[in-house]
Amino acid sequence: MKPIKKDRFSIVFNQDGYLELVDFIKNNDFNKILILTDDNTKENCLDIFLSSITAANPEVSNLIISKLFYYSVKPGENSKNIDTSIEVWKFLIEKGFKRLDLIINLGGGMITDLGGFVASTFMRGIKFINVPTTLLGMVDASIGGKTGIDFREIKNIIGVFGFAKIVLVDFRFLATLNKRQKTAGYAEMIKHILISKTPELNKIKKVDYMEDISHKMIYQSIITKISIIDVDPLESDIRKFLNYGHTLGHAIESYLLSTDRELLHGEAIAIGIILETYLSYLKTGLDYDIVNDVKKHINTYFDIIKFSVTDISEVINLLKYDKKNSDEKPKFILLEKLGKPLVNQIVFEKEIRDAFKFYID
Ligand SMILES: NC(=O)c1ccc[n+]([C@@H]2O[C@H](COP(=O)([O-])OP(=O)(O)OC[C@H]3O[C@@H](n4cnc5c(N)ncnc54)[C@H](O)[C@@H]3O)[C@@H](O)[C@H]2O)c1
Description:
The chain folds into two domains: about 5-175, 3-Layer(aba) Sandwich (Rossmann fold); about 180-360, Dehydroquinate synthase-like - alpha domain (Dehydroquinate synthase-like, alpha domain), CATH 1.20.1090. About 50% of the residues lie in helices and about 15% in strands. The protein is built from 15 helices and eleven strands. The strands form three sheets. The protein has a seven-stranded mixed beta sheet with strand order 1-2-9-6-5-3-4, with helices on both faces. Strand 7 (about 145-150) and strand 8 (about 155-160) form a beta hairpin. The structure holds nicotinamide-adenine-dinucleotide (NAD).
């Protein structure tokens, strides 16, 4: 699979990717390297990662392995917080990490967001590499320089832009990912298809099972994200397109995180996509057939979640924390048509309630 090389970072794939990674480590002459995992990726992915480094370059792998330190955190979104960041910063200080050392984040979006944040703030920023192990991580979270943590139930409210020097995508990691997690990642792929300049809705209609998601589709999804962040890395303009489905998706995720009905990030985004596709019909004239198609397709994979009137009010209340706001009014990304998102769309509370009604019906 062809590597994607940009000024700030490279995305490399599979076995060839390990060659690049080993070369990068060799050329930078790091003294210490931290591999950050969560307990699941430590169990399922670490051996594959280490043996692939050895296979890529048996001569230098011993040297690399002698520089490695390991730190593993508890799996799950609840670890993406300031307490875990402090634990990792403490570990780096105790082990004598310096500005010119390296962190390798081996995990899903929780680990790449957390590890990217820890690396970007430690000594004002040390280099890091992302090795995504979930579908969501591969197509979205590990790419594009957004790092951060949740704080007081608000998603990603503390964070910093920091680009992984290399993102290494190894499709073998998907083998141990459970179906629910894989499906959650698919939500971000649907988002990419809807906002892509060459949207092919019939592509998603052909995906009947998660096994139908090919490596080529994953690659294409990565290309869609790259084509946007390449033009607007710091989200002053078109990068906002990538927030499609996320204004309500994040508010739903944040709200449910504080209850016992917690959803995975991708599951909340899937609901956000349905709601914001309906809002696109209401506000920016998206064809109603597309709205129905998107809802039908997403509901094939994702359970329909019940929202009471109070739940909806709580979600609406959380919209004020959305990072796209310049004032108290939430700003939405809505579709005028497939592949044509419009930014800064104002939506009224009643319209949001109507969108929930459409979702639940
Ligand atoms: N920075 C960004 O641009 C960006 C974009 C989208 C999402 N995100 C963030 O990504 C996070 C969600 O990421 P995620 O869905 O990857 O969740 P995650 O990292 O929590 O991983 C999901 C679960 O799968 C397990 N796991 C990971 N890889 C595995 C493997 N190969 N085999 C077995 N188990 C494995 C993890 O331990 C965890 O339990 C959220 O915090 C979200 O905010 C960030």
